[in-house]
Structures are given as C-alpha cells and as structure tokens.
Design goal:
Blueprint: E1 2-6, H1 10-22, E2 26-31, H2 34-44, E3 48-52, H3 62-73, E4 78-83, H4 88-96, E5 102-106, H5 113-124, E6 128-130, H6 132-140, H7 153-163, H8 168-175, H9 179-192, H10 203-213
Parallel strand pairs: 1-2, 1-3, 3-4, 4-5, 5-6
C-alpha cells in the first residue's frame, strides 16, 4: 500500500514514516504543509493519505481542507486524519464529503501501533474509523428534537460502536451480544432513523452521518 503523510511536526512525521515502513507499508512521500501534500498526491497517486488536521500557515483546518481536495482530485483515495484534540465539526466535514474510506483518530492512537495500523487498514479496505473519544463526546451531548432519541440505550451503544467503523462481528464482541442481536439492533436503527434500503446509499454510513450531524 502506497501512503503519503502530511504532518508539520518533524518528529511525528518521521515517527509515522518509521512506524508505517516497519509495518510493511510504502511511504512514498512525507510532507509538512497542505500545498506540498496535494502536490505529492498528484505526483504519486497513493492508495492512502495520513493527514494532520492543523497545518501551516494558520494551523486551523488546512489539513481537513487538503484532505477533502485530495479526495475530489483522486476519487477513492483513502484518508486517515489525525488530530491532537476532539474536533467534532472536522470529523463531520470529512465524512460528509464522502464517508467511505475515511478515518478520524486522535494522535495518541499513533503510539498504540496495533490500534493505529488496524484503523489504517480498515480505512484502506473501504471502511471508516472514527476515534472512540469522538464518539463518546458526541453521545455525551444533550440532544433535543433528534431522531436519535427514538433509539433504545442498547441501540445507541450499537450505533456508537458502528460509528467507530467496526463490523457486526466486532460489535457483538465489544458489547457481548450475539450476531443475531446485532442484526436486530441495526435493523431497528435503520427503521427508527428512516433509512430505507437504497441502491445508492450505504445505510451504515448514512446512520453514522445522521449520528454525527445530530451533534
């Protein structure tokens, strides 16, 4: 898998490169700002990009904007965004642009190599990977007039784990429930969120987006 990294912190950028190369990935470029990142993506046509949210010159949302631009220029590019803090609007912006093959993790996950690589592989394989801390903070917020209020406590748990990008088997293991129970809860989630079957929409992604937008 060919990877481009965009991270302005030299130590973290080099550390990411070493970790990924050590895990057998091909890091074709490691850049320090958004313009050089977009140039590297255009030149190398990578399979996946790992992008810091805050980069020069303003250190606000350059990384998110660059990630969105890169995905528009190269449809299907997998993107894993890293942030030092929980920044919920950035996660929503990235997912709303196209929720397949995207991830949003806190930088602290990088130090947990197995967790980081698992999330990276999940995104590369076409899934999503939302940091559990982002999910927890979204659910902690008070909601009024929200379709998510229709969900039972267990259905909320299933949706929160689904938002992390886990499949049905992993959801069952996390929550210690059977596969049949997972299927039942997901069907109920789709029904309560008015997500009818649609050839053009992934209902799991749509449910996660509804969840994020509700925050």
């Amino acid at each position: 898998m060919r990877i481009v990294i965009a991270e302005d912190d030299t130590l973290l950028r080099e550390g990411l490169s070493l970790v990924l190369r050590g895990e057998g990935f091909d890091v074709v470029a490691a850049t320090a700002d958004a313009p050089s990142f977009l140039t590297a993506v255009a030149e190398h046509r990578p399979d996946l990009a790992v992008v810091d949210v805050r980069m020069p010159p303003t250190h606000t949302d350059e990384g998110i904007q660059a990630a969105v631009a890169a995905r528009r220029a190269q449809p299907g590019l997998a993107v894993l965004v890293l942030s030092a803090y929980v920044e919920q609007s950035f996660a929503t912006d990235l997912l709303a642009d196209g929720a397949e093959r995207v991830g949003y993790l806190l930088k602290e996950r990088v130090g947990r190599v197995d967790t980081f690589v698992e999330a990276l592989q999940r995104v590369a394989d076409g899934g999503t990977a939302i940091d559990p801390e982002v999910v927890a903070q979204l659910f902690a917020q008070k909601r009024t007039g929200d379709p998510l209020e229709r969900l039972t406590a267990r259905e909320r748990e299933v949706l929160s784990v689904m938002a992390e990008g886990l499949g049905n088997v992993a959801i069952g293991r996390r929550l210690h429930i059977t596969d049949n129970a997972v299927h039942k809860h997901i069907r109920n989630i789709f029904m309560k969120l008015d997500l009818a079957p649609d050839d053009h929409t992934d209902r799991r992604v749509a449910a996660v987006l509804r969840y994020l937008d509700g925050a």
